[in-house]
């Protein structure tokens, strides 16, 4: 009986290639579908002066039924699929699914998109939205979580990278407050 030899390459495979991160396409699609959302996470920090990188779009979204329908339609248009799940896992991407979930991590052809209902450290959506900052990301008008809310969310997450981001966000918030005080 012939013995099969294993080579150093026989049991390896290349990790899947991640798509180039293009937040403009993700954000534009959400806006085209009139989805109500606030960006949180690293991209919100960058929009307010952070130099730390972000590789995904994180959003908190309104939970009313009509917004869930618009969000589900936008996700289908974005060809969103569960990140890290086997391709054969059954998953129906509709408003009922989005309503029942609290945290989704998706992969799209434009990069990763994470959906959160109530991130740790954040207030309820309406308060988060009321305190959000209007800005643009790659020319797309959006709302981003305030630095104070970002700090609270990063501190609640407690990971080392989040603690680093919270420290930077505090520095940014202090600098913005100093500039505003000088104008008065």
Account of the 3D structure:
With 184 residues, this protein is an alpha+beta fold. It has a domain at 23-146: 2-Layer Sandwich (Beta Polymerase, domain 2), CATH 3.30.460. Helices cover 42% and strands 18% of the residues. It contains seven helices and seven strands; from the N terminus they run αβαβαβαββαββαα. A five-stranded mixed beta sheet has the order 1-2-5-4-3, sandwiched between helices. β4 (103-108) and β5 form a beta hairpin. α6 packs antiparallel against α7. It is globular, with a radius of gyration of 19 Å. It starts with 22 loop residues before the first helix and ends with a helix.
Provide a brief overview of the structure.
It contains seven helices and seven strands; from the N terminus they run αβαβαβαββαββαα.
Helicity range of the residues? 40-55%
Order of helices and strands: HEHEHEHEEHEEHH
**Main beta sheet strand tally, sense and closure:** 5 strands, mixed
- Terminus-to-terminus distance: 88 Å
Poorly predicted runs are: 3-14
State the shape.
globular
Mean pLDDT, to the nearest integer, reads 91
Q: Over the alpha carbons, how many angstroms does the gyration radius reach? A: 19 Å
User: What share of residues are in beta strands?
Assistant: 15-25%
- The helix count comes to 7
Helix/sheet category: alpha+beta
What is the name of the CATH architecture of the domain at 23-146? 2-Layer Sandwich
Number of strands: 7
Oligomer: single chain
Widest sheet: strand order? 1-2-5-4-3
Q: Would you tell me which CATH topology of the domain at 23-146 applies?
A: Beta Polymerase, domain 2
**CATH domain class name of the domain at 23-146:** Alpha Beta
